[in-house]
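Structure first, sequence second, as always.
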């Protein structure tokens, strides 16, 4: 289904944006020395972890496997929570703005909810109202 493929593509786009943000954003005044990148002293390292999980989840979503959609919803909500909780530490600076990351995460939540609710059409042969004919 198209909505499932679209949800997978948007998951991967969101993951790329989050990982770019995590690699190239330097928090304002919260690190001693250079903490850009994957340093655990960097308050945005969870963004990279969520981005990495979203890449794997997006690949599974492209295969239209059902468990990928609730996981993507949870990861996107985690992204929004990280943006809200860390707003003062990281500000809106970097190659990708926090507002855009939160907006893409919200779009991802909506698409994955739609993909989760999308059911494949039931064939006429397997339709529950198709009663057997005897005689």
């Amino acid at each position: 289904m198209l909505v499932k493929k679209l949800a997978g593509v948007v998951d991967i786009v969101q993951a790329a944006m989050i990982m770019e943000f995590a690699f190239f954003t330097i928090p304002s005044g919260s690190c001693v020395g250079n903490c850009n990148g994957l340093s655990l002293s960097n308050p945005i390292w969870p963004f990279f972890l969520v981005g990495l999980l979203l890449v794997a989840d997006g690949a599974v979503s492209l295969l239209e496997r059902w468990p990928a959609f609730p996981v993507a919803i949870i990861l996107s909500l985690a992204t929004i929570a990280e943006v809200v909780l860390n707003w003062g530490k990281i500000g809106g600076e970097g190659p990708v703005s926090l507002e855009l990351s939160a907006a893409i995460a919200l779009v991802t939540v909506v698409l994955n909810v739609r993909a989760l609710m999308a059911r494949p059409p039931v064939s006429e042969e397997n339709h529950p109202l198709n009663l057997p004919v005897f005689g």
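Margin note: The longest helix spans residues 2-24.
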